[in-house]
Amino acid sequence: MREIRIVGGRPLQGEIRVQGSKNAVLPMLAGALLNRGQTVLHGCPGIADVAAMLSVLERLGCRVDRERDTVVIDAKELRDCRVTGEDAGKMRSSVLLMGGLLGRMGQARIAYPGGCVIGKRPIDIHLCGLSEMGVSIKKEPEGINAQGRPKGGTIRLAFPSVGATENLLLAAAGASEITVLDGCAKEPEIVALCEFLQCMGAEIYGGGTARIVIRPPKRLESAEYRVPGDRIVAGTYALAAVSTGGSLTIEGVDRAGWRGQLYPLQLLGAKVLWKEDRAALGIQAPKRPAGIPFLDTAPYPGFPTDLQSQMLAVLAGADGISCLQETIFEQRFKVIDQLRKMGAQIEQAGNLAVIEGTSPLRGTLLEARELRGGAALVTAALGAEGESRIRGVEFIERGYENICRDLQQLGGQIEMRKG
Ligand code: UD1
What we know:
Layout: E1 2-7, E2 13-17, H1 22-31, E3 38-42, H2 48-59, E4 63-67, E5 70-74, E6 82-83, H3 85-90, H4 97-105, E7 107-110, H5 124-132, E8 136-140, E9 143-147, E10 153-156, H6 162-173, E11 179-182, H7 188-199, E12 203-205, E13 211-215, E14 223-226, H8 231-244, E15 247-251, H9 262-267, E16 271-275, E17 280-284, E18 295-296, H10 308-316, E19 321-325, H11 336-341, E20 345-349, E21 352-356, E22 365-367, H12 371-383, E23 387-391, H13 393-396, H14 403-409, E24 413-418
């Protein structure tokens, strides 16, 4: 069994270029189904979720070539519109293939993605929107059977769901008429998807606002696009720097993507400096971070739920009492019991965690059970006293290309071991 071994207590120092964004690239890979030509994506991260999505695309009939961080997808010979339970179980984002398949072939059969450890994660907003676009949706025992080319129309999302906004954008780019989406998610990854679809020839207005208007072209063209840097990986490394009292420069980050992430870092006592000429962010952490009296997660531009666990890890070692509220997912505090094993004092009441900072946390044997919770354990272990061993590495690899390499480069004492 592989495990990550960390000896904590060394301040992270130096410069790092962040990998391409997982949450931006996954809908783009689904979007590659829409055109009959080639899609070239640069800056594609080498993570397990991307590998899983690429193998689903191959099974559907796409040709996939990969050279370093450039992926070329040729969807000319697309022949299948079914996504099996095995694929859907491996990767929740396979639900995004629905929009791409409907836009290209007018049909999609997708096994239910199911819930996951962080919450129930229904897809009712996706399905409701597609149905309002004229697609027939049947819930069959083995999955969703969606039939009919999307027509377009005016759709109001009940909640600014990131995945539903993306699925509907993909369907709208392949629809026969104009679509107006109201109540959209505004995340930077949505803006990137709009830009990518524009490269394919779709006319899109309002990406990054609540109302997006999509005029589909007669035919979607081949496209070439560079995936933006991953703001969640960058945020994880920034929080790891704070956990260790270090100072970092993170390259390849976009300032807009950091609305909602910067202020909480400053509340911890970190100094943050933008280096506009290099699209880089400098972070200088205090010796010991300050507790934050109250912080909650929220849709963009609020504090992202994908950094909540890593923030919890930092607050566990901070000076003073903090309250952290999770408002997006129902069960995103699973990491608390692992942090408690390190000596953290955290009380949970529903979606609220009250943290009494303890310093130093102690290294120990830990178990990652999901992606960001795993990253939080790495964050805590780097700042803790002594040795930690983290199991469940495969969860971390779903979203981090090579977390050990990156943190070693910053002076962290961290390595992957075959246990
Ligand atoms: C995406 C991100 C994930 C991030 C999340 C919130 C990707 C691949 N994943 O997930 O990393 O944590 O955004 O920023 O980009 N909901 C419904 N019905 C729906 C859809 C969503 O009730 O049809 C609920 C979900 O259960 C959840 C909330 O809305 O409680 C937010 O979900 P959503 O924004 O859709 O997240 P994802 O797209 O799944």
